[in-house]
Amino acid sequence: MVRIRASAALTCLGDGAATFAALLDGRSGVGSLPHIDAGSVNVTCGYSIDGDAPEPGYGAGGLLSVVVASALADAGLDPDTDRVPVVVGTGLRESRAIERWAAGERPVELERLHFGAAVAGVGGALGPVVTLSNACSASGHALALAHDMVELGFANHVVAAGADVMAVSMLAMIGRVAPEPTRQVRPFDTRRTGVLLGEGAAAVVVAAGPAGDGEAELLATGLSCDASHETIPDEAGMVRAMEDAYARAGVRSADVDLVVAHGTGTEQNDPAEARALRRVFTAPGRPVLTAVKGAVGHTSGAAALVNVDVALRAMREGRVPPVVGLRTPIPETAEFRLAGGEPGHTPVRLAQVNAFGFGGLNAVTLMAAPGAAR
């Protein structure tokens, strides 16, 4: 058995606890773009961390070091003495540092472009450090690798993490495909106008053994790569990732109580994800469905583990946060219980987290409360 011993997150709404509290209240962290000329990218809003502070030289690595240190501390591990491998998923890595160097704003230290330096700053015993750049599902792939490393006996503990910050290149791409600047991410809403970036990081400590109080059993992460299009999601690929997760975990879709959806609020993703969910959840009483990007934006490579942190807290507290920004659901979600309004008590024994990236890089994680899956 493999478990998640500890989890930490950092978003525009604060740390994991503060983010979850804001989600329960239905609050959004959207605001203006700091440090980047909005007119040059046709994007006026985003979900930034510490927007009033000077821009850090290596923002993704800075966020990563905070969540890795926090997760290790919660797990009772000493980063200076406990040898713990770290697997990091990212979409953009330190692209912003390269952009500022190219603009002549500041020099760049090549060794800081890899996250090894950021992790080493947390503790000298951590490592090896492996970085995956699997688009918006990157930290889901990092979690799958961490699970395998523990299950195969490579290490007793492994940290899976993800981190990303704003970059002009990604903002410009978003601005180019939007007919007008998006004001807020609105997952699964009929009047959604597109996605916005969110800065964020998250980390979990994966360990061998049965889950104890406050922990969760890490059942499986199903993966697929459909590669059907550079950007358009493929419904069949999403289904394959979900079915792979159920097969690996030895559970049925009917066992799932909560789905934390990818939910980007885009024209293509939301209907495709909803249709894929309808194909696997065929029994009556479908699970509760929520999504967090309306509150924290799209945190790119960190998105999967940000969702995992939310799912873990929902499991512990028995409350599911509403879909912030959702007013009129798209028809494809009609058969699901979309979380909304004042969160009531919702027992969550088994949770599913979706993460779908460009190029059909899909990762679907299943977690269970202690003893719930056996």
Architecture blueprint of SSEs:
Elements: E1 2-11, E2 14-15, H1 16-25, E3 31-32, H2 38-41, E4 45-46, H3 59-74, E5 86-89, H4 95-102, H5 116-120, E6 129-132, H6 138-151, E7 157-164, H7 168-177, E8 200-208, E9 216-225, H8 235-249, E10 258-260, H9 269-280, E11 288-290, H10 293-296, H11 303-317, E12 337-338, E13 350-357, E14 361-368
Parallel strand pairs: 5-6, 5-7, 10-11, 10-13, 11-12
Antiparallel strand pairs: 1-2, 1-8, 1-9, 3-4, 7-8, 9-14, 13-14
Folded structure, characterized:
The structure is a single chain. The chain is an alpha/beta fold and 374 residues long. It is built from eleven helices and 14 strands. The longest helix is centred in the N-terminal third of the chain and has 16 residues, at 59-74. The mean pLDDT is 94.
Gross morphology? globular
CATH architecture: 3-Layer(aba) Sandwich
- Could you state the oligomeric state of the chains shown? single chain
CATH superfamily: Thiolase/Chalcone synthase
Report the mean per-residue pLDDT as an integer. Answer: 94
Kindly state the number of beta strands: 14
The share of residues in helices is 25-40%
Question: Class in CATH?
Answer: Alpha Beta
The proportion of strand residues reads 15-25%
Please outline the major beta sheet.
12 strands, mixed
Distance between the termini: 11 Å
- Classification by helices and strands: alpha/beta
> What is the CATH T-level topology?
Peroxisomal Thiolase, Chain A, domain 1
Low-pLDDT stretches: none
The ordered string of helix (H) and strand (E) elements is EEHEHEHEHHEHEHEEHEHEHHEEE
